[in-house]
Amino acid sequence: MPQPTGEQIIARTLLSLNVTVIFGLVGIPVAGIAEEAINLGIRFIGFRNEQACSYAASAYGYLTGKPGVCLLVGGPGILHAIAGVGNASANAWPTLFLGGNSEQRLNGKGAFQEMDSVAVLRGHTK
Length: 126
What we know:
By secondary structure, the chain is of the alpha/beta class. It has five helices and four strands. α3 packs parallel to α4 (76-91). The longest helix has 16 residues, at 76-91.
């Protein structure tokens, strides 16, 4: 039996946590996570704008009491979603933001959508 991919592990973990819906934008490097989640029966609601996506996930958390899951591409995708992150944080709405990232070995060398997302979000996350 082949080893599961990281994408499969993330999707299976979300399913095991009873996640039934993901709000997201698909692109490199998170498209595979969305595909695996859909294959497992998790509903994927696609957006064309990260800010709207992050607000939808946080509103879902508020309305249902279950964490809203927001899947984003790295770099600018994370940056554009920060309004929803701040909104969820300020209101204590349960929300899980999953963002892609560039390959660590390429950081500092102009990697695709390279950004220190942890540093950007540190003040608004747990």
